[in-house]
């Protein structure tokens, strides 16, 4: 694993994992934590460990968050800058919770992103978690920051969400897939918010399979 800075701020860096031999695709891992400074890319390391063993180049990124000079549009700009910072070819974004928001948002805005896997993602700022979204941006910015407001994304999006999620309601993914023509919904019965980023769980295996389907064609 190699740590690489993509800017001068302490939060502008990522960790690059390269497989033995030729990579079969590339994945950008974007951690969640409701965009707050207290959560970092350590959340993505277990996922990166699995995916690099699967043969993917993996870029686990950090970005400026709320409470650490982040907010909108800085947080989104950091994600786009990170995606462009390393030459690993076309990428699939894999993001959890708030990172899922950024994964889908980046799919809309970056030519390098060929698809997104949204893990229990925040996809509509106007529903369920509006009070959280208002910590990232103003209500006037919802139209440019909220993925549901940006449909069609123009890339395939696979939404994996547990129906027992108490942090981000599964309805976020259900409703998004109802309006996004290239979205696929995968609901995991009895799964909670953290199951999708816990290797060994059914939820994670479904996310892993989704990455394989999208990134394998990069």
UniProtKB/TrEMBL annotation:
Any one GO BP annotation for this protein: proteolysis
**The protein, known as:** Peptidase S9 prolyl oligopeptidase catalytic domain-containing protein
Q: Does the keyword Hydrolase apply?
A: yes
Listed A to Z, the keywords are:
Hydrolase
The record's section on InterPro entries has:
AB_hydrolase_fold (IPR029058), GDXG_lipolytic_enzyme (IPR050300), Peptidase_S9_cat (IPR001375)
Q: Which GO terms describe its molecular function?
A: serine-type peptidase activity
**What are the residue boundaries of the Peptidase S9 prolyl oligopeptidase catalytic domain, all occurrences included?**
78-177
């Amino acid at each position: 694993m190699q740590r690489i800075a993509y800017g001068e701020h302490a939060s502008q860096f990522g960790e690059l994992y390269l497989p033995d031999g030729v990579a079969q695709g590339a994945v950008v891992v974007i951690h969640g934590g409701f965009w707050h400074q207290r959560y970092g890319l350590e959340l993505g390391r277990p996922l990166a460990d699995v995916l690099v063993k699967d043969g993917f180049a993996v870029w686990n990124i950090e970005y400026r968050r709320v409470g650490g000079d982040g907010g909108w549009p800085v947080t989104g700009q950091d994600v786009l800058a990170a995606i462009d910072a390393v030459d690993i070819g076309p990428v699939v974004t894999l993001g959890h919770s708030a990172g899922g928001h950024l994964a889908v948002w980046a799919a809309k805005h970056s030519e390098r992103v060929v698809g997104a896997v949204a893990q229990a993602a925040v996809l509509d700022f106007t529903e369920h978690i509006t009070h959280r979204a208002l910590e990232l941006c103003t209500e006037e910015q919802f139209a440019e920051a909220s993925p549901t407001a940006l449909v069609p994304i123009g890339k395939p999006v696979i939404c994996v969400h547990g129906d027992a999620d108490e942090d981000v309601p599964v309805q976020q993914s259900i409703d998004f897939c109802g309006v996004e023509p290239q979205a696929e919904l995968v609901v995991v019965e009895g799964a909670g918010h953290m199951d999708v980023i816990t290797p060994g769980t059914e939820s994670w295996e479904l996310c892993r399979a989704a990455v394989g389907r999208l990134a394998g064609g990069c």
